[in-house]
Amino acid sequence: MAAQLRTTLGRVQGGLVTVLRSPTTQALKSEVVPKLGDIPSAVGSVVKAYEIIATKRFLALPVRQVARKAVTSLEVLCWFFVGEIIGRGSIIGYKVKGA
Asked: What predicted TM-score, i.e. pTM, was given to this entire model?
């Protein structure tokens, strides 16, 4: 019984290690809340994006990469609007006292 339990636990641990090393899990790690140490690299990314736009190097990017960046930007914008709707408590306008 104990040997069977050890074998089962070994399989579970091995499966867990496989899951933790999977590309999907690695991609999800990039979606977590950033740490303070990530701020300089984020600022660098913004500066790099500005330089690409200012020098019009984005015209040389592959269509697939431009589409991916556009969809990601659209997703961020949509989540911003969803957050605004939740914050306001309604879809239309803010509730102003006395109006």
From this structure: 0.48
